[in-house]
Specification:
The chain is an alpha/beta fold. Strand 2, helix 3 and strand 3 form a beta-alpha-beta unit. About 45% of the residues lie in helices and about 20% in strands. The protein has one domain: TIM Barrel (Alpha-Beta Barrel), CATH 3.20.20.10. The structure holds pyridoxal-5'-phosphate. The site of pyridoxal-5'-phosphate (PLP) has 13 residues, from strand 8 and helix 10.
Amino acid sequence: MMDELITTLKTHQVKLVAVTKNHAPEEIMELYRRGLRIFGENRVQEMLLKQAALPTDIEWHLIGHLQTNKVKLIAPFVKMIHAVDSLALLQEINNQARKADRVVDCLLQFHIASEATKFGLEVDEALKMLQSTVFQSLDNIRICGVMGMATFTENQEQVRLEFRTLKTIFDTLKNTFFEDKPYFKERSMGMSGDWQLAVEEGSTMVRIGSLIFDALTNEGPP
Ligand SMILES: *Cc1c(COP(=O)(O)O)cnc(C)c1O
C-alpha cells in the first residue's frame, strides 16, 4: 500500500510530506528507514521534540497554523512553512530567519473550503500583501507557492473544485508576481482522504498522515 502510494506520487512528480503528528519518534524512524525524508508537523512544540530526537537530514515542514511568538523556535532549522496567512507572520519569519542567517521557504495558505473555521488568505488580501513595499523588502523568506485544505466532505466534486480554485490562484500569482521566480512552483494540497483528487488537479506536494501510519501498522515490519 505504502509502496504504491510512493510510486504513484513519483510518477506524477509529487512530493510526499509525511505528517507525523501524534506519532512517536520510533514510529517515525520506520518511515525514515523506508526512505522518507520530508516530515510535517502542525505543532511547534512537537516538532521541536522530534527534530531533536531524529536524524539531521530530515526536512521539517510546519504545516499547521503558526503563531508569531513561536517562529523563533523553529527558524534555525525549519525547511518550509506551509500556512502563512498574514504579512505580520511573514515579517516575523523573515526577522528570525535573518537572525539564523537562513532563508526560510514559505507557502501562502488560501481559504478554499466552505467551512468558516479553516485558516487562510482571501485572494485580494494576498494581492495587497504581495504588492506592498514591506513584502518586497523581505530577503530571508521565499514564497514558493500556495497551500490549501479542502472541505471535509464526501462530495468529491466539491473537493475537486476547491483544489481547482487553488490551482487557479497559483496561476494568477505566478503570472502576476513570480513569473521569473523558478522556486515559485509548489501547490501543497491533498491529505489522506483526498490526495488522489489533489494530484489530478495539479498538486505538487501532498501532506499525508493517517494513511501511511495505518499502512505501517497493517503491514507490520518489512
Ligand atoms: C493532520 C494534517 C494533515 C494530514 O492529515 P491526514 O488526514 O492524517 O493525512 C495534513 N495537513 C494538515 C495541515 C494537517 O494538520
